Amino acid sequence: MVTLNTDRNKQFLESLLTYGSIPFWGLVLYYAYSQLMPRGQYGVAFLGGILLLYIVNELIDVIEAEDYASLAALIGSALVVIPVMTYIFTNFNALNSALGGRTTTLQLGMSLAFTIVMAYLTYRAFGITFLTVLLAGIGYGLFGNLIPGVLSHSGLTWQRVLRVLLIDVSGFIGQLNKLTAAWIAPFLLYAGLLKAYGGFDLIMQLSIRSAKYLSSGVAQTAVVASAVVGSINGSQTANASMTGSITIPMMKKSGVKPKSSGGIEAVASTSGQVLPPVMGAGAFIMASLISGITYFDVIASGLIPAVILVVTIVIAVHYVASKQVEDTSVQQYLDDPMPRSEMLLDAITYAVPLALLIYLLGFAGYTIMTGALATAVSMMIMGTIVPMGHQGYRVATGKAGTNSLLARAKTILIDTRDGFREGAVVLAPVAIILAAIGGVVDILLATAVPTSISLALLDLSGGQLWVAAILGMIISILLGLGMPTTAAYTIVALLVAPAFVSDFNMPEFSAHFFVFYAAILAGLTPPIATCVAVTTGIAGSDFWETSIEAIKISAPLFILPFSFLYHPEIVAGNFTPTALASGGVALAGAVVMIHGINFPFELDNRLIRWIVRAGFFVVGLATMVHPAGVIRYGALITGIAFLVAHAFLGAFSPVRGIKTAISTAQGGADTRADGGRK
Question: Would you call 18 helix, strand, or coil by DSSP?
Fold first, then answer.
């Protein structure tokens, strides 16, 4: 048998991936600049290119493992992708003008073969969970007439399903693929360049340095680093793997338990997905799905929830970690500490592109594609000019030799090349799953399932918003399982959010932020909890114990989406006194809830301890969500009273303090009684 695992084979594939990514990104950037062809036609070239790059990347692992079955499947996939995408690209105008027309046997065969390839690549990228979602969506289109009740439809023929998936220039190459190609791809190139130029290293350096100011500082490093990186890279599981490989061992070395280390990292990686200005690239999709709003409107609407989220997680992590940390020194984890001047230069290098993105989209009114293009290009410019300028200064002042300029230029060129490759590797799974979701969504739209879901929610809830909200959250979590941010949000935004807008007259931002947060929480929700599964593997902890720890830390995040429905001013994007006051009340409720769940109460009686925790939780819940102002503000006052009592009675334990006071009083009475008897 021929041996696959040879250095020559691996080097060839590595070079093919690295240098193949350069023309691919050249196409992406050139299209963003010139828009030289219809966006749908460009989307076909984009999808074909990124699928081939993904196949090459997978082949590297396959030949190392000498997996002959996967080798055959991947090569077969490439042999399908190349002719099918070439045919669709060259015949795009004819196919687009003949939308819904007659389909030839050859076209149906190509669509079937490409669907099988997409199913296989989806399985390789995301496992059996989302493959099941894809197949279930196709099955629902074919056999939905067999389902009883409100979700039944007349059924689609297999020819119609195959047309929708590909030949009608929809489905896999439809709106979601075009959005990925034009908006998300350039920004993920920025993320790849950021990593290649050392941006993630800077984030870790800053996080570790800032951690020395708190007793839970080592754990807070995970919160800061994972939140920042997670907001950019658009995948909570990828983020947990990337930052968790550093932060989790760091927490364990300082004394934090494995289950707590894994739970903290899972929550931090998840929370980063909803933080402005990027929101895991979900902000771009939200701006495209809600008519009449801009990217800046999305960012403004997400700021108050982001503050609530960050504050509560920081407090929860402090409660959990501070009682476990044995070694508060964090400088030992800096293998190569940067001088402050170098950190400042790096910070400027990486911050300018992001600041430019916010300015162009938020203030100058440019399109998202132009803003994403400017972000990627400015990252390349800043990543070249700043380090070269710094090295030139060192040469001019005699701190380095003249040959170092050439060496530095060569390093920057290699970093840029690696950034192109890293960007393609990060983009490929996102592009695959969004293309797959595009196919599922277009089939479901052809069956009018959003209307059916809306009717089902209305029917099951009996017109009660709170019941519909609970059902909507469950559906959003189920649909979001195992998917990156953009994919999870897209599917729930198209299938679930319209029900709240049409049936309960919710503002669109309220409905969309509700399903957005709910879908992201799928990464923390067992039995799947993909983000927890990743951190559990790194921490070497028990999955269920780590999941419970993560849910305890993130408990208010499961309640916060309900606040968007009952108090829509929180996500209205208008920082009026009413919005700020409502956001402040929700934050206070979240803090009360976190305090009750995570504070280490020193109570010997387990029942009393649970009663105290339940009291804090209920008061926090009412403060965050209850629609009646009297009850909400009454709960707020009660929660503040609880916290004050806890702060001043009995070493931060109100019940224990009361019991101590009672015991003291009883002891004094007994003494007086004894004295009287004596």
Answer: helix
Q: What is the pLDDT of residues 169-202, one digit of tens each?
A: 999 999 889 988 988 898 889 888 988 888 877 7
- Residue 210 parent element (H or E): helix 199-210
CA distance 138 to 147: 14
Distance, CA of 608 to CA of 602 (rounded, Å): 11
Q: What is the end-to-end Cα distance of the chain in Å, rounded?
A: 101
| Averaged pLDDT, 576-604 | 88
Are 154 and 15 in contact, with CB atoms under 8 Å apart? Answer: no
**What does each C-alpha distance from 119 to 113, 165, 439 come to in angstroms?**
10, 12, 11
- CA separation for the pair 416, 191 (Å, rounded): 12
Separation between Cα atoms, residue 652 and residue 317, nearest integer Å = 18
pTM of this structure: 0.81
**What length does the chain have?**
678
What is the C-alpha to C-alpha distance for residues 586 and 562, in angstroms, rounded to an integer?
A: 11
Q: How many CA atoms lie within 13 A of 640 on its CB side?
A: 10
Distance separating alpha carbons of residues 35 and 182, to the nearest angstrom: 9
Residues 129-161: tens digit of each pLDDT:
778 888 998 999 999 888 887 778 888 899 999
- Please state, in angstroms and rounded to a whole number, the distance separating the CA atoms of residues 336 and 201: 10
Peptide bond into 527 cis (omega under 30): yes
Backbone angles phi, psi at 334, to 5 degrees: -90, 100
Residue 369: what are its φ and ψ, rounded to 5°? Answer: -65, -40
Residue 66 has, within 13 A of its CA and on its CB side, a CA count of 7
Would you say 169 and 40 are in contact if contact means Cβ atoms under 8 Å apart?
A: yes
The residue type of 243 is T
Number of H helices and number of E strands within the chain? Answer: 29, 0
Residue 397 DSSP SS3: coil
Residue recorded with tokens 């309220």: 510
